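[Meeting: bench + compute handoff]

Bench side (C.D.) handed over the final construct sequence. Compute side (W.E.) agreed to return the predicted structure before the next meeting so the bench team could plan truncations. Sequence as handed over:
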Amino acid sequence: MDYKPTILLVDDDVNILNALSSILHKTYRVLTALNAEDAYSILNNNPEVLAIISDYMMPDRTGLELFASLRNMPHLFKVLITGFRDFNIAVEAINVAKVDYFLTKPINFNELVKILDDSVHARALTTLTTKERQIVSLLTTGLSSQEIAHLLRISPVTLSVHKGNILKKLKMDRDKVFLSILTGKVTAGR
């Protein structure tokens, strides 16, 4: 099974949740919550969540209140969606709730997908184990797989397994890795 970064969508409107889920499910494992309390429960049971997208106006708590209460989870990329074009809400979102991105309705789905791809896949790098980060670092030096395995005191088979895990976590295929080596640019994502 291919690795998909996990994101959480929070909105009291089921139609919005369904629309966002249908767009994002091909690239992400999408979890949904209808309110802040459900979101807390999902986050507590799914520590692998890398991003949370929430509506601003919900009956139990606003998206700002939800995000402000998640300050102890700095690894989460937070996107607030609102129908209000209010400068004060935007300032509070950034300064108090530590929102990473602020979108107004109607939602530009292409913009949402791009910011998620850029941020969530970058944060996926943090999911690499210490050994996997060592391997990535050594791969960029041009050492052969045999040399890397020898340096890390692991078998070539174990190295191959680690390399496969790295590709899955970063959602990269071998063609992208080859291209990134040729161009000198390492990018994660589609």
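W.E. noted at the follow-up: The CA atoms of residues 140 and 181 lie 8 Å apart. C.D. will use this when planning the next construct.
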